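Protein folding task:
====================
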Amino acid sequence: MTARIDRSLLVIVAGVCGAIHVGKLPPALPALREALDISLVQAGFLISMVQLAGMSLGLAVGLAADSLGLRRVMVAGLTLVSLTSLAAGFTHDAVILLALRGIEGLGFLLAITPGPSLIRRIVPADQLDARMGAWAAYMPVATALALLVGPPWIATWGWPAWWWLTGALSAALAIALWRVLPADPAAASRAPSAWQARLGETLRAPGPWLVAAAFAVYSAQWLSVVGFLPSIYAQAGLAPGWTGLATSVAAGINMVGTIGAGRLLQRGASPQRLLQTGYAVMALASVFMYAPVWPAGGLAVAGPFVAVLLFSSFGGLVPGTLFAQAVRVAPSAGTVSTTVGWMQQWSSLGQFVGPPVVAWVATRTGGWSFSWVVMAGCAVTGLVLARTLGRLHMQRLASTS
């Protein structure tokens, strides 16, 4: 049993190493903007460009993982982000860096999509919800590490060395996965029509659509907030060391919600209630983060920071619940990665659109005061989707009872 649990933890760590390539850019934005002379909107696209592959190829990668082998695809993804990151450290051209971010996004997608299916294969059924909650923390853990380690590393050795470090970490995890995880079992069918059957089965079911859309409106909010926090703090005059620490705490506290969601689901909590709580707190907290509601003085700094912590920690209930639901709403065991790929595709769409929209609103309004409108709109949409997903959950329970 211990070996099996250790393997699932290794998969989670590999997910963190894949996701650190998304989180490594926000702490580097001030240095990149100075070195490459890029605008705020261009910075938004640099943040979101890594999601381009996921936005267009998430479903295809999920199908590939179910067909070609989960371990094989995850190792290939880690290898690709490693090579791309190492290469990007040698360029100082914004256009080339943007293109490499797009390729890096494909590697990230390959590294992340097989994770839930691998964990489902490794752990006993009674531990699945808890492990899915832990898996859902891969993004906040990676972002927190990047924001904590990135600023002092960049200040000492420069942003190219930061790219090289993250590339080396991913290479190490690719080797570890290949050595420790068992070989992929032979595919049940290699017929050309097999992937078409899985595709049709997935897209005809309502569950994959609901978890995908729900993840999109969550990810659009979360990356928009965390992605620009270092820049917001830098503009406020916060020292680089404190900027990284404050933002890493804001990102890392998200894992409280993701892990908590898995534990609560394992104890019988309602997925609908968890989702609705997450979205509602995100909407309310965004008002106190951005709207000019705080008086001048200490509260003007402390109040928004507390709101960020609430936004991130309660928001973590959403991915923790959605990953656990994704492995259940998949139409069959052979479509779990396909369902996760579809969810990842919509998540990437949210992350691709969110930061540029928030940057555009901030540019048009002369500051961040109206960013809460974007967040609240996404959260309200999430509340509607959570209610629909809750009805589907109850129907599924009724059909199995």
